[in-house]
Input
Amino acid sequence: EMKIPLTLLLLAAGIGYGMTFDVRSVRDRVDQPSSSGPYETTWELVSVDGLACGEYQDAWVIYPSGTAATGMTFPLLSFAHGKKAGGTALKPSYRTLLEHTASFGFVIIAPRSCPDDYCADFYQDQLYCITAAKEGGLSSTGLESVDWSHSVGIFGHSMGAAATVISAGVDGYGISAAFVLHPYYNPPSIYEKIRVPTVHGTGSSDQICPPQEVKFGYEKNSFFPKVFAEIENATHLEPNTSSEHRWDPFRPPALHVPHQRRYRRV
Output
């Protein structure tokens, strides 16, 4: 078992290798894996007209708040939820995951669209939220603290992770890092289009999206650096129902995006 700093793997441009490792004993690596970052967090529901998938035309914005965040600016992350976890289910399903991530200094925008079914085009809403946030047309206190000199990070779970894989291959949105948690299957051609450093996360007990499928996507991804990470005994619902929150120590450092820069294939 290797102790791999994901920050180095994801944010060092031009490193021509990938890495596979098992996340078997997170508590041996991190003192308090579920502890929050230095910032309090606030949820804000924001109207987003033009979302393509489903009835909800809005998104949650989760952002650092409180005294420590006063006058500070932060990078933007766009999050895509899993199947049947949109709409009113998004906040209770992903509250711990999103608050923990935002507490380390991120503004997160999470569309509530696609509430009931599998949406093959959900990536469009993940990307549209980035554009809407940047163009300044959304009425949001949280989005006022986004630092647009930084690149954007994207992440998602299950269906939303499959959407994130597609988004990771689309130019024009300033994306520089992706974290896909237990992604639904995408054809090989989608993984071959990835253009940013990506963590492919899974669990050994995931029976919905088996780890071998996630490993297959990782292998088809030809963009470096990249990571395949598997948590022993984790099920498909590790990101939103586990009491251990074993992804927590790895997600914030993996998504700490740099100032605007270009990566390249090697």
About this structure: The chain has nine helices and nine strands. The chain has a mean pLDDT of 85. The radius of gyration is 17 Å.
